[in-house]
Amino acid sequence: NAGVTQTPKFRVLKTGQSMTLLCAQDMNHEYMYWYRQDPGMGLRLIHYSVGEGTTAKGEVPDGYNVSRLKKQNFLLGLESAAPSQTSVYFCASSPIRATNEKLFFGSGTQLSVL
Amino acid sequence: GEDVEQSLFLSVREGDSSVINCTYTDSSSTYLYWYKQEPGAGLQLLTYIFSNMDMKQDQRLTVLLNKKDKHLSLRIADTQTGDSAIYFCAESPSGSARQLTFGSGTQLTVLP
Predict the structure, then answer these.
(1) Taking every pair of C-alpha atoms in chain B, what is the biggest distance, in angstroms?
(2) Residue to test with chain B: of A105, A109, A110, most B Cβ within 10 A
(3) Which residue of B97, B102, B105 is in closest CB contact with A101?
(4) How many CA atoms lie within 13 A of B17 on its CB side?
């Protein structure tokens, strides 16, 4: 039972390069989320999706784009990477619940932008 | 905006109790959570408490909520080396992850 899988686990980019982070879940969850985790700070929501074909902005969406073409996949794109985007990125998913949503997290992607 | 604060580090001896503290500012917080992050892994939900509760116990874990002071604590009894991890406090007024605010995490180190 894989749960939430993120690829790649590590990546180093040069400023201005682009890349896509892939999140895949095998639990048939409706909701998916992308967070970033910076030292000394809690996780901050970048973008989220409440179903296939839908996306919405979170707390810190600037510089990122997302797509949810298939229910099981949620892609996070950086079109022109900046050093400020150096962070650990976590994907999470959850089943539909009206309240008390339970998140299932991937193991993270460490991204460094030089 | 909403803020959730935790101390950054805590060290305890194996077998002792650990108490991890959290304060929050949002008076409409209804759902309060504790997540655990082990090295190289994502966060896992440990436990949660509703704002109409004062205490919740789950095996070695006890969650205490002081709503008046907006203070949440997680007590781990008989702390083991496997409990070494980062513990995140989080709150949501609705229980929706879209409104979830995380603290910065407390690194718990269990010494033999």
Answers:
(1) 41
(2) A105
(3) B97
(4) 9
Beta strand residue intervals within B14-105, DSSP E: 18-24, 31-37, 43-50, 55-58, 61-66, 71-76, 85-92, 101-102
Per the structure block, which two tokens stand in for B15? 């077998």
Looking at the complex, does the CB of residue A92 fall below 8 Å from at least one CB of chain B?
Answer: yes
Nearest to B2 by CA among B20, B21, B28: B28
A60 in contact with B, Cβ within 8 Å: no
Residues of B in contact with A44 (CB under 8 A): 102
Chains A and B form CB pairs within 8 A to the count of 60
pLDDT tens-digit readout, A37-82: 998 888 999 999 999 999 999 999 999 999 999 999 999 999 999 9
Burial class (CB in 10 A: 0-12, 13-18, 19+), B45: middle
Written as tens digits, the pLDDT of chain B (112 aa) is 568 999 899 999 999 999 999 999 887 878 999 999 998 888 999 999 998 889 999 999 999 999 999 999 999 999 999 999 999 999 988 888 888 999 999 999 999 9
